[in-house]
Amino acid sequence: xxxxxxxxxxxxxxxxxxxxxxxxxxxxxxxxxxxxxxxxxxxxxxxxxxxxxxxxxxxxxxxxxxxxxxxxxxxxxxxxxxxxxxxxxxxxxxxxxxxxxxxxxxxxxxxxxxxxxxxxxxxxxxxxxxxxxxxxxxxxxxxxxxxxxxxxxxxxxxxxxxxxxxxxxxxxxxxxxxxxxxxxxxx
Length: 187
Known about the structure:
- The protein is an alpha/beta fold.
- It has one domain (2-186): 3-Layer(aba) Sandwich (Rossmann fold), CATH 3.40.50.
- 30% of the residues lie in helices and 24% in strands.
- The chain has helices spanning 2-9, 40-50, 67-76, 87-99, 130-143, and strands spanning 57-61, 79-84, 106-110, 123-126, 149-153, 160-161, 164-170, 173-181, 185-186.
- The strands form two sheets. It has a seven-stranded mixed sheet with strand order 3-2-1-4-5-8-7, covered by helices on one side. The protein has a two-stranded antiparallel ribbon with strand order 6-9.
- The termini are far apart.
């Protein structure tokens, strides 16, 4: 079932609706958000807004099925690093990456988002809850280099002024994409 859903939403088959998975897919008590896959049009727009360039490194924190990283590698020829807490999602995503022959371009790390060194990142994508973004903010400020971009789906990074905010209707609901450029302006 999950493989079929992944194939649908990765563009192999048309994705009819955003798929929400139960919180227990990320079974560890350290999870910062439920697993909710971003619809492909939102993924495309997040990467467009971030201005991803060939050769840049995109980190996706809570990468789920890897669709953001796979899209970045295929469309922009970017490198991707995903961090995911769920062993099940890491295994499934690595299988998808191998089938797409992207294992040299995309790497998935099984780990805690709060313990990742983000220094190599040019772009960081997140679809986490606002409180989780609050927890990650010190790491962004510590590790990300000037000019790096943080793109958040639906949830702001409190205390930062976004470079751009875009509202998009997709799959019968409104989505908001926030773009922040490091160092971020303070509100």
